[in-house]
From TrEMBL:
Any Gene Ontology CC annotation: bacterial-type flagellum basal body
Keywords carried by this UniProt record: Bacterial flagellum, Cell membrane, Cell projection, Cilium, Flagellum, Membrane, Transmembrane, Transmembrane helix
Origin species: Shewanella salipaludis
This protein's encoding gene: fliQ
Membrane-protein topology: Multi-pass membrane protein
Stretches of the chain forming a coiled coil according to its record: none
Protein name: Flagellar biosynthetic protein FliQ
Length: 89
């Protein structure tokens, strides 16, 4: 196994991780920003006000994107299993 192939596998794994995490985190980040702007505009200093919308949006993102997330992970896993002979031999 060459170092280049190991680096390629690692790069692909990182790109899949970043893609999956960003699909779940970015909607919550956007809602948190909207709630923060609303709190700043209305001078409401309640810490728990931004928690519930972010939680709900994250849960909805997991619910709606769950199939795609699992499919992406499965495709990556199958590709890694298919690469085992190349890595070993």
């Amino acid at each position: 196994m060459s170092p280049e192939s190991l680096i390629d596998i690692f790069r692909e794994a990182l790109s899949v991780i970043v893609l999956i995490v960003s699909a779940v985190v970015l909607p919550g980040l956007a809602i948190g920003l909207v709630v923060a702007v609303f709190q700043a505009a209305t001078s409401i200093n309640e810490q728990t006000l931004s928690f519930l919308p972010r939680l709900l949006v994250t849960l909805f993102a997991l619910m709606f994107l769950g199939h795609w997330l699992v499919q992406t992970l499965m495709e990556f896993f199958i590709e890694m299993v298919n690469r085992i002979p190349q890595v070993i031999g």
